[in-house]
Design brief:
One of its GO terms (molecular function) is ATP binding. InterPro entries: 4Fe4S_Fe-S-bd, AAA+_ATPase, ABC_transporter-like_ATP-bd, ABC_transporter-like_CS, P-loop_NTPase, RLI1, RNaseL-inhib-like_metal-bd_dom. The protein has 603 residues and is an alpha/beta fold. The protein contains 21 helices and 27 strands. The protein folds into three domains: 76 residues, Alpha-Beta Plaits, CATH 3.30.70.20; 232 residues, 3-Layer(aba) Sandwich (Rossmann fold), CATH 3.40.50.300; 191 residues, P-loop containing nucleotide triphosphate hydrolases (Rossmann fold), CATH 3.40.50.300. The protein is 31% helix and 19% strand. Strands 16, 17, 19, 20, 21, 22, 23, 24 and 25 form a nine-stranded mixed sheet that branches. An eight-stranded mixed sheet has the order 5-6-12-11-7-10-9-8, with helices on both faces. The site of one adenosine-5'-diphosphate has 11 residues, from helix 14.
Length: 603
């Protein structure tokens, strides 16, 4: 008996009419006549009578796991729960369903962050804090009862919050994670969407700060993802609420937009005494924005634990280290490390292309791009940084021969595999069919190790492209791009909607791919940690978005970061314990000193 383990059956995957109950046939307790895996029968709240249930009392736990291996549809998850989890769950969705442990604490006047993977119960927690879900404390058969919840949290700050919530004194405003879905739910102009949220009379100022003015009269379905993200943030912040929940604020935004959003959120907390709860995977922004941090860990889809609040610095450091100190909990086998000094100063590969100075204009009064000539090497990962709308994809089209430069000759034409910033895959096709149509390597052990595993594709292979979440779609799109035969792989914002661990794994996959294939990879991203972990060298774009852009010659990391960050007037210091880069407070002593020294990143 393993009472510290959890058995989760995904009822969308369990298909007893197609499997012959392999799980039950092989389950060791079942084979000795015990009723460990049984049929649900007519009287369960969820699932078909023929689907299975697993007794967590009888199950031998993760070390057995035979049914997990036997199930042809990956419907079963058996996990040992950390011994440190002494309490019952806060909520369990049903028998053999996801269990959530711990709740975050929204605090007036403060920005509280949650750091952790997708699928770990963050939205479940927010449903509870918004009063839309009465936590059942693990007893899914019990009637909803707030008094039991209050009892559980007696004497804690959360109890005060919950009391006000139950009394109807807490109003909630939220920004959803996947802004791409907004046009499905709303049709009309941006102005119409935003005006109905203007409950605090602050909309005009927010619109101005976020630079949304140019799209106010445009239909929502015609605006870009980056614009949609800012509109959604404006809509959430314009409302009158006590508790604001923002599920990811950075996808599709460039760094200065990210910092503006962070400032707006902080001001609303501090000046208006509101509680802000933010889920975010861009660690530099999370660090800058939040006053305290809950780390979320567990097994996505099976169980999630939300820790008590930590200081932001400790929370991020412990997360990167993979070890939570107060909880005495290892959440990852290895630590994520940053190099303190500018790492690789030169590339070792052969030149892929030498290109001269280039000039391209889209016509009189239209956007124009100047490019400083340079060399791109094989086997290198070239980071590309700069604002949105500054000419990055224009340069890719010049390299691909899809556009001709007005000045400068390109005597090559590269095959470019391109992952766009906004991933739109909407064929009604399964992931495995889609990927095997791109590469003959699909399914080989090499491809599995290099691409499928690090991008966590195994569990989604049989799903339809149209049913994927934003993060899943991103991972499939990265895999599709890397699976193509090409001279140059160009990935535009691969970090969007990936959680921190997925970003690190995607980084490893991309780097390893470049090295093993003598491939050249260019990665455009606005997550400075991802750029740092990925890049051998940097190409910096500056100028005025939508008007004129300038691309620097590829430079070594230190010079590139200085070039880029001096434009933004942002400096980073190093965390003493982990060497992790942290954004300096503008005007602080370190900020001023580093600006004087011209050392913006590797100080
Ligand atoms: P996050 O916000 O961290 O991505 P969620 O709180 O949305 O995670 O979901 C956590 C887990 O709970 C997911 O595996 C999801 O499948 C499961 N889940 C969410 N809602 C329900 C529900 N109504 N019934 C059963 N399982 C659910
Ligand atoms: P980035 O990739 O840095 O976001 P792009 O290269 O896509 O930037 O675009 C730079 C600018 O050029 C944008 O303002 C965009 O609207 C404009 N642009 C892109 N393609 C065309 C085109 N075919 N005709 C006119 N303007 C264009
Ligand atoms: Fe049976 Fe549990 Fe082993 Fe699955 S993990 S086969 S339910 S004992």
């Amino acid at each position: 008996m393993a009472d510290d383990s959890i058995a989760v059956v995904d009822l969308d995957r369990c298909q007893p009419d197609r499997c012959n109950y392999e799980c039950a046939n092989y389950c060791p307790p079942n084979r000795t006549g015990k009723e460990c895996i049984t049929l649900r029968g007519e009287d369960t709240e969820a699932g078909d009578p023929d689907q299975i249930r697993i007794s967590e009392e009888i199950c031998l736990g993760e070390t057995c796991g035979i049914c997990v291996q036997k199930c042809p549809f990956d419907a079963i998850e058996i996990r040992n729960l950390p011994a440190e989890l002494s309490d019952d769950p806060v909520h369990r969705y049903g028998e053999n369903a996801f269990a959530l442990y711990g709740l975050p604490l929204p605090e007036p006047g403060r920005v509280t962050g949650i750091l952790g993977p997708n699928g770990i119960g963050k939205s479940t927690a927010v449903h509870a804090l918004a009063g839309e879900l009465v936590p059942n404390l693990g007893d899914h058969a019990a009637d909803a009862d707030w008094d039991r919840v209050l009892d559980r949290y007696r004497g804690t700050e959360l109890q005060n919050y919950l009391k006000r919530l139950i009394a109807g004194d807490v109003t909630v405003s939220r920004k959803p994670q996947y802004v791409d879905r907004i046009p499905d739910q709303f049709s009309g102009r941006t102005r119409e969407l935003l005006e109905r949220t203007d409950e605090r009379g602050d909309l005009d100022r927010i619109v101005d700060r976020l630079g949304i003015d140019p799209v106010m009269e445009q239909p929502i379905e015609s605006i870009s993802g980056g614009e949609l993200q800012r509109v959604a943030i404006a809509a959430a912040l314009a409302r009158e609420a006590d508790f604001y929940f923002l599920d990811e604020i950075t996808p599709y935004l460039d760094i200065s937009q990210r910092m503006t959003v962070a400032r707006l959120i902080k001001e609303l907390a501090e000046d208006e005494n509101r509680s802000m709860l933010v889920v975010e995977h861009d660690l530099a922004i999370l660090d800058l924005l939040t006053d305290s941090l809950h780390v979320a860990y567990g097994q996505p889809g099976a169980f999630g634990v939300i820790t008590d609040p930590k200081s932001v610095r400790n929370g991020i450091n412990e997360y990167l280290k993979g070890y939570l100190e107060n909880e005495n909990m290892r959440i990852r086998p290895s630590r994520i490390e940053f190099e303190e000094h500018a790492p690789r100063t030169s590339s070792t590969g052969n030149p892929l292309v030498d290109y001269p100075d280039l000039y391209k204009s889209y016509g009189e009064g239209e956007f124009e791009l100047t490019v400083e000539g340079g060399t791109v090497y094989e086997s290198e990962v070239l980071g590309i940084v700069g604002p949105n709308g500054i000419g990055k994809s224009t340069l890719a089209k010049l390299f691909a021969g899809r556009l001709e430069p007005d000045e400068g000759d390109l005597d090559f034409r590269l095959d470019i595999a391109y992952k766009p910033q906004y991933v739109e895959i909407d064929q009604p096709m399964r992931v495995d069919a889609f990927l095997s149509s791109i590469t003959d390597d699909f399914g080989t052990s090499f491809w599995n190790t290099e691409v499928a595993q690090p991008l966590q594709l195994e569990r989604i292979m049989e799903q339809n492209l149209t049913d994927l979440s934003g993060g899943e779609r991103q991972r499939v799109a990265i895999a599709a791009c890397l699976s193509e035969e090409a001279d140059l792989y160009l990935l535009d914002e691969p970090s969007a909607h990936l959680d921190v661990d997925q970003r690190v794994q995607a980084t490893t996959a991309i780097r390893r791919y470049a090295e093993n294939h003598d491939a050249t990879v260019m990665v455009i991203d606005h997550d400075i940690y991802m750029i740092d972990l990925l890049s051998d060298r940097l190409m910096v774009f500056d100028g005025e978005p939508a008007v004129r852009g300038h691309a620097s010659r590829p430079q070594e990391m230190r010079a590139g970061m200085n070039d880029f960050l001096s434009d933004l007037e942002v400096t980073f210091r190093r965390d003493e314990r982990t060497s992790r880069p942290r954004i300096n407070k503008p005007g602080s002593q370190k900020d001023r000193q580093q600006k004087r020294d011209g050392e913006y990143y590797y100080a």
